[in-house]
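BUG: 3D viewer hangs when loading the predicted structure for this chain

Environment: internal workstation, default settings.
Expected: structure renders.
Actual: progress bar stalls at 90%.

Input used:
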Amino acid sequence: MIEIRFGSQVCGELTSAASREWLVPDGLGGYAMGTVAGLRTRRYHGLLVVPGETPASRKVGLASLDPAVLLPSGARVRLGAHEWASGDVDPRGFELLERFDLTDGLPRWRWRIGDVVIERELAMLPGRSCVAVVHRLVGGGPVELELAAACTWRDAHGERRADGPPLRMDPVDGGAVIEGAYRLSGPGWTPQGHWWRGAYHREEAARGLHPEEDLWYAGQFRDTLRQPGDTVSVLAWAHDPAPAPPPATEVVAAARRRNREVVASAKPADDVEATLALAADAFVVRTNDAAVDVVAGYPWFGAWSRDTMISYEGLFLCTGRADLGRELLRSYAATLSEGMLANTADTGRVEYNTVDGTLWFLHAVSRHVTVTGDTDLGDELLPALRGVVDAHLAGTRYGIAVDPADGLLTSGAPGAALTWMDARVYGVPVTPRHGKPVEVNALWINGVAGVAELAELAGQDADGLHRLHEQAVKAFRQRFPAPAGWLHDVLDAPAPAYPLGGAAFHDDDLLRPNQLLAWSLPNAPLAPDPRAVGLVGAALLTPLGPRSLSPECPGYLGGHRGGPAERDGAYHQGTVWPWLIGPYADAARRAGLPVGELFVGLEAHLSEYGLGSVSETADGSAPHTATGCPFQAWSVAELLRARR
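Structure tokens produced before the viewer hung:
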């Protein structure tokens, strides 16, 4: 894997160290997450974040475990880091870091206090909400080590304040059970029990959200590190009837071995691909009912069917997980209703509110069968896939229906945002895109062709599917090319306002990246035109992927910043989306354009923001600072797939 290592110049400079985040997942949707500096900059940061009924319904437990070294001289040196509402940063342990590295996906810090060197490693127990934190004396000694446990128990999207009840602490051997929810265990436990008030999260402030919370100082562990190699370890795990976890050092060693096996099973071609294969592993989870699912992004997303299906090939077929993928496709197929795939949203409710999620599902099944030769799955799901086509022909929710005049797919309903550009501000869609969106129709044509192929493999008649496909392709080729040289973004879009006697509909030719799918999909409706693809690249391409709108178009916003309304307003109005590098790379290759240097910026990004991973979004304007989730499934999946 690529080397991710920082010395004192990065670790000791707070802005740099606090803007680089690490993630260690538990395989269930929970995680440990923080920054190189050790500073908690988000409400979502913690060493034990526990998934609930769905991956999105997480709770923060152990917030931090702050080390302090007691030297033989009597000096007490604190190695933790907190920022407070007063503006103070105290303690400032990052100033004593001589190195941070991410090895086999696990973070490791090394502090130097003169000749005393302390190292910290942490890992989670795969398949269980359990974190192990190991401290090792590397040089000097003997010294005493204290570990202060700052705790909470709250929804990951909120805060807990000292004006509420204190956290309940039940004593157990070697530690305590907090709120009946999770257990702390380690040497020399001394309970405390009071509030640390005004912990400040700078990233939440930047996002226009409430940035403060209070933390419960539950107590401290203490032990002696006598000689190099000695360790002091703490375990924290969701309190359940299962046996206690193995010793912390074994948890770390086992996690390291497992991560190496994950990489090896993906058969990576180079270090970047190895890094992406391990990054992909974070998003594939087992939910409470043991079903395979995909977390769309850490730290705040759960499972979203559109994201899952866009990510499918990269996460499952490029990493040696076809068996798990098969299981996932079957479980998602069971959610089909009226020809639409359930959008298993973060609300915990099953919703049917996308026009493209189902079409991405058709694509995922087709790619699975094509890549793996698993015709048994194709045969099993074929009736459901034919049902999708039939329902779209007949018409389903939100005005989603095939226009009999041209075979193209139209959609739209008041207040609905059905495509992947689904941001709303105060409930109003920013880019409603009602009518016939270009990528939706590319996916429709691709999907119908894929179902026809599966039908023929099963020995079934596919003539009707071929006729439908041919009609839609003919109309697509006639209608989507725009005079400007690229493709219309939406055909037959309702005009926002028109004079008496004017047209009620128009064809939207804003320069967006959605048209890339018309050239990139396996059964794309158009052969790539080098000039058109070149125009898209010239206007939209950045080091981290394509923008969502050309800077030359009205409504362009180059910064994805500010409060929720400002960020949502810019979400698809110029913001960069790294996942689009996949469609762009495919279209460029087919057009005969060079792609050898296309991934350099994203490869460098692997050590800039979410360490070893790819962010959700970035500013449309230079320097294209990353925004959104630092760890995003479709960003990782499409970079991995496109490079491979």
